[in-house]
Structure formats: C-alpha cells, structure tokens
# Entry
Amino acid sequence: MAGLALAPPRTRAALSPALPLVAVVALLALPLGAGGEGGAGPADALSALVVLYCAIRVVRDRRRPLSRTAAVVLGLPVLGLAVAATGAISPGAGLTGMGRYLQVFVLVPAAVLLLLRDRSDFRLLAWSFVALAGWQGALGVHQYVTGTGASYQGEPVRAVGTFGAQDVMGMATVVSLGLVCAVGLALGRTPLRQRVIAAACALALLLPLALSFSRGAWIATAVACTLQLALAGLRRALTVAAAVAAVAVVLVGGFGLGSAMLQERISSITQVTDAPDQSVTDRYTMWAAAAGMWREQPLTGVGLKGFPEHRDAHASLALSAASDTEGAGAGFRKQALLSPHNMYLLVLAEQGLIGLLALAGGWLALLVCALRRMRGTTAADCGLVACGLLVWQLTDFAYADIGGPSTVLTAVCLGLVAWWGLAPKSGEGPAR
# Structure
C-alpha cells in the first residue's frame, strides 16, 4: 500500500494549444448563412476568442509575449491604421476598418505566433489547411459535374464550394492555400508516408483549383509553388514539374466542356489590352480610381472604408459598378464593386504612402526572415510551407484584397509565417 501511495500519478498528454486555431480553419467548412457574405462569420468570431484566450495566457504567465523583432514587424501596420482611421468618413467606419485590419494583420498572426509550441503544431495547422481544401474542393468538383455551381458564361459550372456565388473567390483561396501547404509538406523531410499523402493531396487539388476559373489564384499558386520547388532543389523540382504536367494533361484532356472553358480563361490572362472582358475592364477602371484617390491624398489616403464613397468621383464611365452573380443555390443578383480588387492599391488609396509602407514593410520583413531561416534548417517542410504561403498571399494581393469569410485564413497564414521567421531557432516558440 505504501508503494502505491508513493507512486507518481499518471499524467495525461497535454492537448496542443494549436487546436483552437485548427477549429478556426474547420469552421470555414460550414456553409454561409443567408446574407452573411462580406461580413464577419463564425470563423472570425472564434478568431477573436482565440486572441482573447492568448491574451489571458500572456497575463497569467507574466512573461514578455513577443521578442523585440516580432513586436516591431507585427506592430508596423498599426501606425498607418491609426492615421487612416482619423481620416475616415465617420468614426464608425474608422473603428470598423481598423478592427478588421488589426484582426487580419496584427492580432491573429500574433496569437498564432504565441500559441504554436513547436514544428508538430505547425504541421498540424498546415494539415488542417489541406483537409479544408480537400473538403471544399470535393464540393466544387461535384458542383461542376452536376451543374449546381455558380454561373460562369451562362452555365452553372463554376466551383465555389460552400462559399456560394456571392464569394466566388472563397473556394479558390482555400484550395490554393491547401495546395501550397501540401506541396511544402511533400517536399520536406517528414516520413515517406506523409510525403506521399501530401503529394497525392496536392495533385488532387489541381482539379478543383482549375474548376474555380480564378485567374488570380492560378497565377499566385504557380508563383508560390515555383518558389517552393526552387528552394527544395533542382532534382525535386524537375520530378514534381513532370508529375504536374502529366496531371494537367489528364485534367484538361479529360474534360470536354472544361477544356474549352479553361483554355479561354487561360488565354484571357494575356488579353490586357486586346479586347479584354468586362471583369478585366472593371478591374482596371477601379485600379485607376484608387490611383486617383491616392494622388489627392498621397500621404494619408482618403481614410479607412473610404474607397466606396470616393469611387464614382474617380472612376470612368467604363465601370459597370456591379457584377452579376447567380447559381450555387442563390438567385440572380447584382453585387456592387466596392473595392479595387488589389490590396496594394486599396491600402494606397485609403491609407496613403504611410499605410502602404507600414503594411508592405512588415510583409517584406517577414519574407526576409522566413527565407533566412531556410538556410541550414532541418525542418524544410515548415519553411517551404511558410515561404509558399507568404509568396502566394503577396502575389494574390495584386488581384484581390481582404473581404469575405476566407479572409481569416490570411491572418492564420501570416501567423504561420511569423512563427517560422521570428520564433527562436530551437523551434519551441517565442519566450517559452
């Protein structure tokens, strides 16, 4: 009995603190509620709770949460946001816009940086991206095959997953990020079985990405994966390139209607001056409008949430002002064009040079830190995932901006990059 009394109690394995972040990603698998497009969704609400939980942990542990470098890099956007919020058209618009930017570019990335303990947590979160992409991609392929997707060229064949016709970029973003994570995991030094599964997932995600008909997502994914292959080495790059080419031939050759639509969509990428379609015309018109706003207020911009208010005063008559959406369970409706679909120009128009230099400066610093960390590392998969996600995001920002339910994934991606680039080299997380 005495021996039993002296025996130490059996301890349970501690749950990963990354599980709340995995739950944020998992909530994006749920269908959107009626009228929920463009605003905060369940994943955004949970991300706010995660930030609160992280803050409570920091106060309870009484320790310095971030290193000086991490605090400077992640805190840079606050400067431009504070200036732009004072110039907003109303105090409510300023507070709303500032809250959204802080969520995406400061608070959630900092929470991810603090909650991830080691590379296992990093990989767990990366695999959750792949799982979400697989779910949304499977729904998208089903929509294309059954003709229940969003309307594209008059036919309900565009794959949009659970995001619906009101957010045609949502599934493309999710699938692209999952594909980038899968490629990074496949090129790493994890056990062979995991690398084979990741490679199979990456190849499978090519089909829903193609059926999303999103030119911006295609370009960003190609750039990100090219960088990952270059970082992984020439031999692996050639092997993966051959496999992707073979799969692409099978996909395009095996879909009659899809091949014609895909070829037309791909060829439209280069039609920037020679008879561009209306979506391209609208995009260039809004880019010109954003540039006009910046020229009026070069340092501070027109204020947060100010682009819709100043758009008509700077846009030409070529702008259609709204796009047609239909299908995927929704009726026909006009969706107003309230942003320039270019993150850099949106920040330049609303926050001026101060805001753009603060945001872009933080992103550039993250990229430099992530690439430097790749030298001599023993966890290449984490580095490849982080570098790929950041390059994908920076490329996609040339064709899109924040908005919609999938925006929370941008915040989580930046947190993964911050952990890889700014956490101590031991991989145990910051200030542990």
About this structure: The chain is about 65% helix and 5% strand.
